[in-house]
Amino acid sequence: MEIGNTYVVQKTCPVCGASVPVTKVRSRLIALQTDDDFCVHYKDVNPYYYTVWVCEKCGYAADETHFLSLMPEKKRAIVQEFLKGKKIGIVHQELRTRVEAVAAFKLAIFYADLLHESPGHIAGLYLKMAWLFRESGDKQKENSALEQAANYYDKSLSTERYPLGTLTDVAVMYLIGAIQNRLGNVETATQYLSRIVSDREARTERSIFTKARDLWQDIRERKEREKAAQAAEAAQESDNAAE
Which of 36, 67, 135, 205 is the most buried (most CB within 10 A)? Predict the structure, then answer.
């Protein structure tokens, strides 16, 4: 079934083996802008709504890569044991609402945690869920998800070997810096960005290096402006007190 930029296909659930419908998004989408943490804003359909696939038969949820991957028997048994005796009230919708998309991400994060999936994978789920909250303007929930993403990415840097998928360790350091800057943790953001700017090898990843350098400079300039404003305010207060 096709609906505009989306279409429905049948896929096999790696847990229960049922053939279930999932929604996919066509690749030819119009991007309007990209945020500093790689969130892309699109003109029409938001593909992040369909990042997570959910089995309407058993309730398992994962991103496309993990849904299609061969699940080890030990992990399948863990999920099946959890689902035993539970009634699943999930019905596939060709077009998701933002609320449904967020619920799908929460399910995927739950299962990823249950199966002890890699920190980098869980971080990516939290980051994309944060983007959904950003779209809705819910700053509090966005920041909560961003904090989780930053924490898991930080753990990933110390426990996993990069590159992982399309991400390198330099890209992850930049991502943490960008996220921390969004959260207002300027000192932490500067620490991560400085590691990239001062690393000669990082310059081979020209795009990421440029983003890190530009954001690092933006933060420094902002801090200087704030410092100057505070000094001017203090001077004004001193003048007022002297009068």
Answer: 67
Alpha carbons within 13 A on the beta-carbon side of 226:
7
The C-alpha atoms of residue 94 and residue 2 are separated, in whole angstroms, by 9
82 pLDDT above the threshold of 60:
yes
Domain ranges of the chain: 1-118
The full DSSP string for 120-159 is: HHHHHHHHHHHHHHHHHT-HHHHHHHHHHHHHHHHHHHHH
Cα separation, 7 vs 23, whole angstroms: 6
Tokens 């539970």: give the residue: 86
Model confidence at 52: pLDDT above 90: yes
pLDDT at res. 238: 62
Q: What is the pTM of this model?
A: 0.91
Do 63 and 125 meet the contact criterion of CB atoms below 8 Å apart?
A: yes
Q: Which long-range contacts (CB under 8 A, 24 or more apart) does 137-146 make?
A: 143/182, 143/183, 146/37, 146/179, 146/182, 146/183
